[in-house]
Design brief:
By secondary structure, the protein is α+β, with helices and mostly antiparallel strands. It folds into two domains: 163 residues, Jelly Rolls; 105 residues, Homeodomain-like (Arc Repressor Mutant, subunit A, Orthogonal Bundle), CATH 1.10.10.60. The chain is 43% helix and 18% strand. It has ten helices and ten strands. The strands form three sheets. The protein has a five-stranded antiparallel β-sheet. The protein is elongated and about 60 Å long. The chain starts with a strand and ends with a helix.
Length: 277
Amino acid sequence: MTRRTDARGAVTCGGVPGPLPAGQAPRCYTRAMQSSVDLHLRSYGQPGEPDRHDFAQLVLPLRGSLLLDVEGRQGMLDPLRAGFVAPGAWHAQHGAAGNRSIIVDIGVEALAPETGERLFERPFAPLGPASRKLVEFMALILNADSGAVPPPVVQGWVPLLLDTLTLDAPRPASRLAALLARIEAVPGHAWTTESMARAVGCSVSRLHALFREELDTSPHAWLLEQRLRRAREWLASTDLAIAEIALRAGFSEQSALTRALRKATGMTPAAYRRGQQ
């Protein structure tokens, strides 16, 4: 039997008590937690063997997507949806190319029972605006410090994150914020006011009201702004053909991007690119 270390660093064998998925051999976990809460940046590739450990785990995608299986319950995770693995739960995951996630290991002693129960009931939780702000904050620190975060920062950040993840269903404004983040991630999708309203869970007229109340603009104007912002980023930082940039940013063709950019900046895409070099 392969040796493993538990959450306290003690060496054990064969895993923790509990049923093993049918047809699967046990795999021992060899990484010990360094404290009651550990953070890691991680990417996932092809499916691997199921695993489990004596501590809870949060999976917070920063980019890309991955499929998480927890005791037979599956959920697709992305920057708008987090995953929770309870202590001792068998789990496996695999992701598309380019995925990147913050992994939060939480010792049992650092997880309040009621919080663990709520996350266990809803292991694939949507990330509302407050949660995403906390995740973005930690991502900046992890990237700036090459993965090293001062323990006091972690100890203060995790309880706040758990609180936001276990709040009741978000209000309409929160659903709008989730939609905005989704569009910012994939502006080239064929978004319409109807599909945006469906994503928020409201009528088209209510969607317009939310945009006016929260952003003082219309859904169409905000969408165009995001597409132009992404097109400008790609023009300045890549060698992609202008026609390809137009399609990736959500414009029907290169001429549509040219018209929109000229109206916004007075420049054609080619002129804008030259000005950024």
